[in-house]
Amino acid sequence: MVKPDWRWVAPRLASLYHRGLLVPFIGAGLSRPTCPGWGDFITHLETSAATGVGTGRDTAALIRRANKTVLALRHRGQGALEKAVHEALAASPVRIPEGIECLADIWWPLVITTNYDNLYASTVVSKWKTRPLVLGRSPMHCFQVGRVLREPLSPALWAIQGYLDTPCAEHFDSQNQLASELIVGHEEYRRVTHREPHFRRTFAEVYRNRSLLFVGSGLQEQYFLDLFSEIREFYGPNGHLHFAFAPEGELDVDFLLREFQVAVVEYAVPKDNLADHSDRQRHLRELKHAIAVAPTPSRWDYQVPHPTKARTACFSVESTPLPDTLEAHGCLAVSAGGELGRGRLWLSPPIKQLVETYAPGVPHRMLGHYVARYGDHPVFAVVAREERSSAGRFDWDGERTLAAVYWATRNLLAHAQQMGFTTVHAQLFASGPELDGARDAKPPFRPAHALAEMASAFGDFARAGESSDDLRMVVHVVDPGVYTELRRGRLYLPEFLGCEDLRIWVSIELEGGPPSYHHLHIPALEFSDSRPLTTGSPVRLRDIARMFHIPEDWTVDVWPSPQRGWAPGPLQNLGDKEVVFAAVAGSTVRFIAPGTPRD
Fold first, then answer.
1. What is the pLDDT of residue 392?
2. How far is CA 47 from CA 11, 184, 251, 307, 368, in A?
3. What are the angstrom distances between the C-alpha of 202 and each of 181, 256, 291?
4. What strands, in cross-sheet order, belong to the sheet with 423-426?
5. Are strands 262-267 and 299-305 parallel, antiparallel or unpaired?
6. Given the DSSP bridges, would you call strands 393-394 and 330-335 parallel, antiparallel or unpaired?
7. Do residues 521 and 327 make contact, with C-beta atoms less than 8 angstroms apart?
8. DSSP-assigned letters across all residues of 23-73
9. pLDDT digits (tens, 9 = 90+) for 181-219
């Protein structure tokens, strides 16, 4: 028997994780005991269906019981199965299982689940203060899964057998569309894999290009093994292993490794307590430690050519806090908020303390709308907000937008160069949580998008020849959701630093059919000859709509949201809206025909 040894599995998983290749695949075992396991779940459905509780707990018997019960519930009309599943998953009070906690302690861009509950999604919200995308099997959602593999979107939970917003209070499927995708039982599983080719193709892409880590999933469902076999027959064996945690003796370890390239890591379960999976949780905690200590890049340097070729410009990203000492001709730029009309800056407590070490008791003075300096000290504060001014006063309660991040960075670089600084150490601008005491909502874009706009601004500044000396900008990033995107290549900064066009997705959605997608590269000057050549420049939504002959009564939406409070609406109302796209970070314009449901 070839038995994987955890000593070599752990560093291998950590290596796959940092390359962005590791994707957890979670099953009912991870949601226990808050939600019932497969056998108890079928018993709950049988009670709801009043078909009588069947006998037998082996896999074949459970398949027969599930098919009989689901058939009875579906014949009772629309919503009967959904109600029964919802009641089976209900729990009060809700206790997050330890296995879910351990898994969510690690930042995952994509998790696949066969569960119907929202335990994992709710735990991500509490752990990482970000809302994951919950995706299903529709053509649009499968397309989104493909994008998650390549672009720095929000973390995603791919619910491949349907989903209900229960038992936790948070809601991720506001229109309850994924409830219609519920499938229970072997017959329904098999039918879905054969009748939904877009799902099968997307699953094959994930299976072929990622290393799956099965946790709480028994790998005993025949329809899954058939799906794996089909992928292997069409595409050949994978270039990497998949992995699984399983109780000792539950799975045929040799068979899975030989036929499906799944390395099973067995763990002990006490014979007198078969519900005790603490050994699996220990492996998950050890995986988190292995990820933390694995060799990884912590700094990225990019050279940007200067038009005269006599100067050098370097854009760097470091996964470190801002420095407490500076080199000669170096300066510090911190992110700040502000208060309406009073010229008052808001800094988070740690940043305020850092500024005090450089400029103790020194008041700031404004150098323009975006930038302030503390006396003659090498410390700048950057207010990346929309420009609003009246009677000579600046209104820093303007919106956090990607355009403001771009122009704030350009202004900072200009002031720093003018004052003789050649190295600028900066935070991410306008990308943190709500600042202490500020009346401001969290930004409508992800921190990775802010980094992309800062890189765009630096590249344009260098190419425009505005730097009179060698220039280096170092962005210090402490958010793992940002620097992991760099490690995995989902955020490719050279494209921002060197390209002057806008790259966006356009989806066109018609009632009764799958959406069509278009990937556009738009020259920055195509729609307006009055603005500078920058990726931080606006494009009108009506200009894009005109390319696809979109009528004025269609709904238009944009992601990431171009500003706080953004809401989709008719093109005739929003067509002249100027929107800044964080293009490489996955900007999308959706045109939705009247009567088409939105998800």
1. 46
2. 46, 15, 30, 75, 69
3. 16, 22, 27
4. 299-305, 312-318, 471-476, 423-426, 330-335, 379-382, 371-374, 364-366
5. unpaired
6. unpaired
7. no
8. EEEE-HHHHTTTS--HHHHHHHHHHHHTS------SHHHHHHHHHHHHHHH
9. 998 877 777 788 778 888 999 999 999 999 999 999 878
